[in-house]
Amino acid sequence: MANAMKTLIPLLDRVLIKRAEAITRTAGGIVIPEKAQSKVLHGEVIAVGPGARKENGEFIPVLVKVGDKVLLPEYGGTKVSLDNDEKEYHLFRESDILAKIQN
């Protein structure tokens, strides 16, 4: 994760998110086929931009921070793959994020 933050810094109100992995096995050990797996709608914030700009040039701060768990829309975001990391990340605008998940 640290490599991703050094390599990719989101601009303005964009947020870099690593989606949680889909459940591939049941508690009893049965393998779930890929077509039957539900789409993962939550993830972890990896990096955050400085925020959107007002007309006078000041930044509106982003409400999520690195490490937050968030609820994501079913569709949207831009898929990002980094050369030095095999994991897949997504870039979302802050306004596209549905909610923060409290522990």
From TrEMBL:
Record keyword Acetylation present: no
Originating gene: LOC106121438
Species of origin: Papilio xuthus (Asian swallowtail butterfly)
Keywords noted in UniProt: Chaperone, Stress response
Family in the record: Belongs to the GroES chaperonin family.
CDD domains cross-referenced by the UniProt entry: cpn10 (cd00320)
One example GO MF annotation: metal ion binding
InterPro entries the record matches: Chaperonin_GroES, Chaperonin_GroES_sf, Chaprnonin_Cpn10_CS, GroES-like_sf
Cross-referenced SMART domains: Cpn10 (SM00883)
Keyword Chaperone on entry: yes
Cellular component, GO, one term: mitochondrial matrix
Name the record gives this protein: 10 kDa heat shock protein, mitochondrial
Family matches, as PROSITE patterns: CHAPERONINS_CPN10
